[in-house]
Design a protein that fits this description.
Two copies of one chain form a homodimer.
Chain A: E1 10-13, E2 26-32, E3 37-43, E4 48-52, E5 58-65, E6 68-72, E7 75-79, E8 83-87, E9 93-96, E10 103-110
Antiparallel strand pairs in A: 2-3, 3-10, 4-9, 5-8, 5-10, 6-7, 6-9
Chain lengths: 116, 116
């Protein structure tokens, strides 16, 4: 069940929502509904999201800044700005920042595994 | 039912997928599953996506380039690069390019109203 009522135009600035930590990759939520979510992931050099899978939910990563080494279903590829990649449901996927600069990703997932 | 098998890492370059037409706003599909889709919308000055609603599907717009005048649920706002906006299911939403330059948007929708 949707637990909130949306009456206003909901917008976020993906530049100001960025946050990094020397500790580990940071995730900030931008939007969340029962059907999907949008997050921003911020990875310092050397940080990663370890490969994992979501039963029945697809994920899309869009590279905003930097270069990520994406691993999806056993394949690995370096993707940079303007590139977008699909991690289909049930397939192992992860991303590492093997570069010397920060990596910023927009991440979309549906359906939202945190709901329902 | 999913009608295709995805065996490889699927990636698109959102720069090379752009296409504009003097006729009307252009949509190009980037990814499509039964759960969600990702499109790129390209609007010349003066072009628009007329307000409409999707029963049970949420849409998220991310502004890549230019400025769009978004109308969601009766509210109107101009959004530029790095801004992202939610058009929740069942609410009228649309976008017009009232600026003098091209507008490029990434659009994510879940669930995919073209499937299922």
């Amino acid at each position: 069940m949707e637990s909130r009522t949306i009456n206003t135009l909901e917008t976020r600035n993906t530049k100001t929502e960025r946050r990094f930590s020397a500790e580990k990759m940071q995730k900030a939520n931008l939007f969340e509904t029962e059907r999907m979510f949008a997050d921003i992931y911020c990875l310092e050099p050397g940080q990663e999201q370890k490969p994992h899978a979501h039963v029945g939910s697809d994920k899309i990563y869009f590279v905003v800044e930097g270069t990520g080494r994406f691993q999806i279903g056993g394949e690995e590829r370096d993707l940079g700005p303007d590139q977008i990649v699909l991690a289909p449901a049930n397939l192992d996927h992860g991303v590492r920042n093997e570069s010397q600069t920060r990596l910023v990703l927009l991440v979309f997932m549906a359906p939202n595994p945190n709901k329902g």
